[in-house]
Design goal:
globular; 3 strands; three-stranded antiparallel β-sheet; single chain; mainly alpha
Length: 191
């Protein structure tokens, strides 16, 4: 019997770009590669919708969203039960904006693409670590949510919102740190 796909399996699929083959357009800098990777730079958002009908709707339906291309992005959980987002996640347009979450993540991607072979591993390592830590925090939060949501629904709702806000802010802070790290490295490399 086939094994069900995990969240990590789906994240890996969205990050696919023919890694380890001659068809990898990023590793080999071949813009005329005839095979199209799944993860491409012009992607504005990547979504994984995870529905778990056995759980309360507020936590059982999660949209894992990565701003931009998945291979140089981080998947952040957006629960159905949240009612708002940090303000930076409500901003974004065609021009770079320091107050926009989209542009914070996009800047990391642009820096990564200036020298994919050198900078992409730095981004991937940081984002994969963040996702693993977030996965653990989610499990812990969901256990607590399930423990209290029937008897303390308002407390459960507030806890979910606080968790979401915290993760989304931490994601932006990581993107800011990566921007600075990559920009510093790029400056050294140019000299």
């Amino acid at each position: 019997m086939p094994k069900p796909l995990s969240l990590d399996d789906i994240r890996r699929a969205f990050r696919f770009h023919y890694q380890g083959t001659e068809h990898d357009p990023y590793l080999h800098r071949n813009p005329k590669e005839k095979y199209r990777p799944v993860s491409i730079f012009r992607t504005t958002q990547t979504h994984i919708l995870h529905v778990r009908p056995e759980l309360p709707q507020a936590i059982g339906r999660v949209d894992y969203m990565s701003m931009g291309m998945a291979v140089l992005g981080v998947f952040l959980p957006l629960y159905q039960g949240i009612t708002s987002y940090p303000e930076a996640y409500t901003k974004g347009g065609l021009r770079s904006d320091a107050d926009s979450a989209y542009w914070k993540f996009r800047k990391v991607m642009v820096l990564g693409m200036t020298n994919y072979n050198k900078y992409a591993p730095i981004i991937k390592e940081a984002y994969l670590k963040f996702e693993a830590e977030t996965d653990q925090r989610q499990r812990e939060m969901e256990e607590e949510y399930l423990r209290i949501y029937k008897t303390q629904p308002l407390r459960a709702k507030d806890m979910l919102q606080e968790f979401s806000d915290s993760i989304l802010i931490k994601g932006m802070e990581l993107a800011d740190r990566l921007q600075e790290k990559l920009f510093t490295q790029l400056t050294k490399d140019i000299q």
